[in-house]
Specification:
It contains 2 helices and 9 strands, in the order E-E-E-E-H-E-E-E-E-E-H. By secondary structure, the protein is of the alpha+beta class. The longest helix has 28 residues.
Length: about 160
């Protein structure tokens, strides 16, 4: 239903009890939504909206939300066979199928088989990686056992 400003009364500015999503924040009468690619949708109370790329010059509440989104906790299982399972923090992307985490000063992306939001899930994925590695090593061992050593007479 339109309001006196020409907007929709379903806008969260009209009902402070409205539950916002984890990636949303109200600043004054504007609703800011940060998507997974750092684009910010700004819905104004008058019904207009704009889409801009995130900038550190945005209001403090939006900057704080950006920091929170970049620090979502997860467990990395990718290196379970060499370094073990360890905790990471980063931005969840592609609807939970990837996470972008800052490690050793640079960003690294982990796919859905390489991380989990729970330690139990990461353990399951690490076990799957272990089984896959064992199968690969058995296949390699089988090839080596069948290998015949050839002597090349031309080099002497």
């Amino acid at each position: 239903m339109p309001n006196m400003f020409g907007g929709d009364q379903s806008h969260p500015a009209y009902d402070p009890r409205t539950k916002l999503a984890d990636n949303q924040v109200m600043v004054g009468n504007d609703l800011y939504t940060i998507d997974e690619d750092d684009w910010v949708n700004i819905e104004h109370v008058d019904g207009t909206s704009e889409r801009v790329h995130f900038s550190w010059s945005m209001p403090e509440e939006v900057r704080q939300l950006h920091v929170v989104l970049d620090n979502h906790p997860a467990w990395c299982a990718k290196y379970a066979l060499t370094q073990g399972i360890f905790k990471i923090a980063g931005r969840i992307r592609q609807g939970g199928k990837r996470i972008m985490a800052k490690m050793a000063g640079h960003y690294q992306s982990f796919g859905e088989k390489e991380f989990d939001l729970t330690l139990e899930g990461a353990k399951v994925k690490a076990e799957a990686l272990r089984k896959k590695k064992l199968a690969s090593l058995k296949k390699q061992l089988s090839r080596i056992e069948k290998l015949e050593i050839k002597v090349n007479d031309e080099q002497a």
